[in-house]
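Worked example 3 (structure in, sequence out).
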């Protein structure tokens, strides 16, 4: 996994998936020693010589049933990475690739 937000993830893989394919993902958050499963759909494909964002071959997934506690944990982790000394973690970091 190369990119993660509370709404989706980018995963590098050579697997062939169809557009809008539905998958079940296991997300592991080692920063807080937690893991969770969520359903997701292929939101965009990154293949060919002109790949987006400098990412390797893979897919952008949009989560479809992210547990709210998992989404909050992801937001907290990302916020603390951007602002490590900030106490307020209510802001979110929008995924730069989200096309929903």
């Amino acid at each position: 996994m190369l990119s993660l937000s509370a709404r989706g993830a980018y995963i590098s893989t050579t697997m062939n998936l169809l557009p809008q394919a539905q998958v079940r993902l296991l997300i592991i958050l080692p920063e807080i020693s937690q893991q969770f499963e969520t359903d997701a759909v292929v939101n965009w494909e990154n293949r060919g010589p002109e790949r987006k964002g400098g990412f390797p071959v893979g897919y952008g997934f949009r989560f479809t049933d992210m547990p709210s506690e998992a989404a909050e944990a992801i937001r907290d982790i990302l916020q603390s990475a951007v602002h490590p000394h900030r106490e307020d973690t209510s802001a979110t970091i929008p995924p730069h690739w989200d096309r929903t």
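Notes: Residues 68-82 form the longest helix (15 residues). Residues 88-100 have pLDDT under 50 and may be disordered.
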